[in-house]
Amino acid sequence: TVARLQPFASTIFAEMTELAVRHGAVNLGQGFPDSDGPAGMLEVARQAIADGFNQYPPGRGVPALRQAIAADRARRYGTHYDPGSQVLVTVGATEAIAATVLGLVEPGDDVVLIEPYYDSYAAAIALAGANRRTARLVPDGDGFTLDVDSLRAAITPKTRLLLLNSPHNPTGTVLSEADLTAIADLVIEHDLYVMSDEAYEHLTFDGHRHISLSTLPGMFERTVVISSAAKTFSVTGWKIGWACAPAPLLDAVLTAKQFLTFVGGGPFQPAIAHALNHEQQWVSALRDTLSEKRLRLSAALADAGFGVKRSDGTYFVCADVTPLGATDAYDFCRELPARLGVAAVPVSVFADHQADWNHLVRFTFCKKEETIAEGIRRLRAGH
Ligand code: PMP
Ligand code: GLN
Asked: How far away, in angstroms, is 275 Cα from ligand 1 center?
C-alpha cells in the first residue's frame, strides 16, 4: 500500500461488524437497517431486471432518476438543477464524495473538514494527494454546534474545498441556520467550493429541519450537493447516490467519476426514481418510527449510566462513557460485543484530534423494533 493510504487499511465499520458477528452481538455499530424499503420500489427493481434492463446505464444516470432527483430538490428546497447537465448519479454517496474531491482539488491543496467527520472524507483527500485541515464541533448543552472560530482558523491560502455534513454523522447534529450562514460567509470571503453531504436530509426529528447550504445566498454556484438513496429508502446495498451542482462543478465530478466506476446500479436506478416520486409517505413514516426508536434507545442508554447526547437527525445517537468509569471509548467498543453482546462505534475514529472525542460512543437506532429491544435488554442487563 502506498504511504498516503496506509492509515486507511481497515474501516471501523468492518472492524466492529466483524466483532459483532464473531460474538453474536446486536449490531448497533454499523449504520444499516435490518428491514427493507418500500415494497413498490423493490418491485420496480425486480421488474427492471426481468425486463432486461441489465446493461450499462447512461453515463450521468438514467434520465428518469435524474429528473426525479431534480424534482425532489425543487419541491423540498426550491433549488433548480437541470437534469441534463446538473445532476449526476453515482455509486453511493461514497463515490460522489471521492469524485468531488478528486475532481476539484489539486495535489498539495488544503481541504477543510469538520471534526468529527465521516471516515471516507479523509481517505478521499489522501487519494487526491491533498492535505486535510480540521475545524470542529463543540458541545452546546446536550448537543453540539460549530466552532466558527476553528473553521476560520482552518482556512489557509491553499484551501479550495470545504467538506460539510448535516444532518451529521456521527453526532446527530443538524446545523442551525446561524451556523450555515457563518459557513457561507467564510466560504464566500475565501472563495471556496463546498461539498454538502446531505445523506441524512430526510431524517430530522423534533421539528428540526434540514437546510441545504446550497439554498443560502451565493452558495448555489459554489456547492456540490451530495445525497443517497441508502438511508432514505433503506437500500444501503444498492449503492445509488448522486451529486447536484452547476455544470462547471458537476463536469469536474463527472470527469473523475467516469474513471472510478463509469456507471453503476442499472436496474436500481428506475426503482429509486419511483421511490423519490411516489414514496414520500413511506419516508415520513420511517422518520417517525426512527424518532421513537431514538428516544427509546437514548432513555435505555441513560438508564445504563451513559451520558447521552441529543440526536436531532441521522439515525445515530452518541453517548459519553466516562460516567461508566471508562477512559477510552475505542477500548470500550472493542470489549462491548464480548462483554454485553452489543456492538457500537467509537467517535474518536472520525477525528484527527482523537483525545477530544475519546469519551464518546456512537449507537445506531436504524434497526427493527425487536433488534433495538434486544440491544436495550442487553445494555440494561449489563448495568
Ligand atoms: N456520507 C455520510 C455522512 C454517511 O453516513 C454515509 C454512509 N451511509 C455516506 C456518506 C455513504 O453513503 P453511501 O452508502 O450512499 O455510499
Ligand atoms: N454510513 C454508515 C455508518 O456510518 C455505514 C458506512 C459503512 O459501512 N461504510 O455507519
From this structure: 18
Q: Contact at 8 Å (CB) between 196 and 215?
A: no
The residue with cell 447550504 is 213
CATH number of 3-37+281-381: 3.90.1150.10
Output DSSP code: residue 316. E
Ranges of each domain in the chain: 3-37+281-381, 55-278
List the beta strands (DSSP E) in 13-109: 26-27, 87-91
| Threshold 0.95, pTM exceeds | yes
Q: From the CA of 199, how far away is ligand 1's center (Å)?
A: 6
Q: Read off the pLDDT of residues 238-248 as tens digits, 9 standing for 90 and up.
A: 999 999 999 99
Ligand 2 pocket test: pick from 11, 12, 32, 168 the residue with the most ligand atoms within 8 Å of its Cβ: 32
- 55-278 folds as Aspartate Aminotransferase; domain 2 (3.40.640)
Tell me how far CA of residue 92 lies from CA of 88, 197, 239, 257, 286, in angstroms.
11, 12, 4, 11, 20
Nearest CA to ligand 2 atom 2: 31
